[in-house]
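Hello everyone,

My group is preparing for a crystallization screen and wants a predicted model to guide construct design. The compound we'll soak is 2-acetamido-2-deoxy-beta-D-glucopyranose. Before spending weeks at the bench, it would help to have a computed complex in hand. I've included the protein sequence and the ligand's SMILES below. Output in structure-token form would be ideal because that's what our pipeline reads.
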Amino acid sequence: MGKANLHVFFLLFLILSCFCESNNQLTQPKSLSPGDMLISEGRVFALGFFSPTNSNKSMYLGIWYHSIPERTVVWIANRDSPISNHSSVKLSITNSSEMVLFDSEGRTVWKTANTTTAGGADGAVAVLDDSGNFMLRLLNGTVVWQNIDHLTDTILPSTRVLLSYKAQVVGRLVA
Ligand SMILES: *[C@@H]1O[C@H](CO)[C@@H](O)[C@H](O)[C@H]1NC(C)=O
Ligand SMILES: *[C@@H]1O[C@H](CO)[C@@H](O)[C@H](O)[C@H]1NC(C)=O
Ligand SMILES: *[C@@H]1O[C@H](CO)[C@@H](O)[C@H](O)[C@H]1NC(C)=O
Ligand SMILES: *[C@@H]1O[C@H](CO)[C@@H](O)[C@H](O)[C@H]1NC(C)=O
Ligand SMILES: *[C@@H]1O[C@H](CO)[C@@H](O)[C@H](O)[C@H]1NC(C)=O
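Reply:
Good plan to model first. Here are the tokens for the complex, ready for your pipeline.
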């Protein structure tokens, strides 16, 4: 490979890896599968699938600090419904502008409750921001759902409570 080719190749590699790594949005035709991650713009938080270290069978969709090596989970979507069959699991935005977590058989494991619109929208985009807020926005900017509105299934840093990842997922709370 010539030197110029190598440069082009390297540049392409950089562009591609930036494109993949700095993705903080989920849009309608895409879906998030196990192994994929959304990372907030300032690389503070990550959203994706994880399994607790003591059980590589149960899988959860959650948000954790991207910068802390020991995974510190701050929000879990399907806390009460862990997924055991990991194949074909995906988080998608539906045509009715809801965000839905599907299991391997296409059943709904979790979805955004209380979205204020009932369909009709041109589309929606889900964005993870640097404060750990995950929000579902219509294309006109209206936020129809965000995790901080749902405190029953949300534990955020601002509440000064973190879920210890090492403990059982439903377990200990550390102030
Ligand atoms: C994780 O999965 C592997 C392969 O399926 C299995 O051998 C191992 O015992 C599992 N570990 C735990 C902690 O469940
Ligand atoms: C969603 O909308 C797209 C494009 O309009 C259409 O092709 C697709 O069939 C729709 N999906 C469902 C489940 O209605
Ligand atoms: C997991 O789901 C896939 C896809 O639906 C299916 O083919 C497979 O048999 C399932 N595995 C188990 C162990 O149920
Ligand atoms: C939906 O939102 C309304 C108004 O904010 C609230 O009273 C209601 O409890 C919510 N329902 C659910 C299922 O979260
Ligand atoms: C955005 O679109 C939704 C659904 O069509 C509508 O309810 C909402 O009022 C719109 N918001 C703005 C700011 O136009």
